[in-house]
Specification:
two-stranded parallel ribbon
């Protein structure tokens, strides 16, 4: 009987010892997890801002001016091209009129047709060249504006206030953004001030 109670006491003593060991080792592990979580930072510590690009482009003076310049250049190109097309169409109508009236020799007809073909090809090349020039100019201006925005944001965030500054456009990847993270007005103001200084 004494042996059984001694064995039970030993087993209970070992069990209590194991429980104490587990309790204190788990307690220190929980403290370690809590400490690592707080050092990593919570979601609130991740500082994010966004710029609404639709609003920015609607109020960014340099963008508005450059867009107007490109539109004016496009209008002039279209005007020049239309003028040349009108001249070409007059030549074609004049040629057709003379052919119908029988006023041209075969050799004259061939020479005029050849010249009209050359004029037509030149007109097509001119239209293509103008289109390419306009596309290249638009691309370069867009790159310049994009670079201006990035460089401004680097300066704007030189204190490291934000970890991320994202662009937001309607229908883009950001489906929802909290308005408190919107720095668009500051960015527009800063970019417009920079642009006004550069114009002087």
């Amino acid at each position: 009987m004494k042996n059984i109670s001694l064995i039970i006491n030993i087993v209970l003593g070992i069990a209590v010892g194991i429980l104490f060991f587990l309790f204190f080792s788990l307690k220190s592990e929980i403290k370690n997890i809590a400490a690592s979580t707080s050092s990593a930072g919570s979601v609130k510590d991740i500082r994010i801002a966004f710029v609404n690009m639709d609003t920015l482009y609607a109020h960014y003076d340099e963008y508005i001016d450059l867009k107007a310049q490109i539109a004016e250049k496009q209008r002039k190109m279209e005007s020049e091209l239309n003028s040349k097309k009108t001249q070409y169409e007059k030549k074609v109508m004049d040629y057709q009129d003379k052919v119908q009236k029988g006023l041209l020799l075969t050799s004259e007809r061939q020479r005029i047709e050849q010249q009209l073909y050359v004029d037509q090809q030149n007109l097509l090349r001119l239209g293509e060249s103008m289109q390419n020039e306009l596309a290249e100019e638009t691309r370069v201006l867009n790159n310049r504006l994009g670079n201006n925005i990035v460089e401004f944001l680097k300066e704007y965030n030189k204190d490291g206030k934000y970890v991320y500054i994202m662009s937001h456009v309607f229908g883009g990847n950001l489906l929802y953004v909290n308005d408190s993270l919107d720095i668009t007005a500051d960015v527009i103001k800063g970019l417009n001030e920079q642009y006004r200084k550069s114009k002087k």
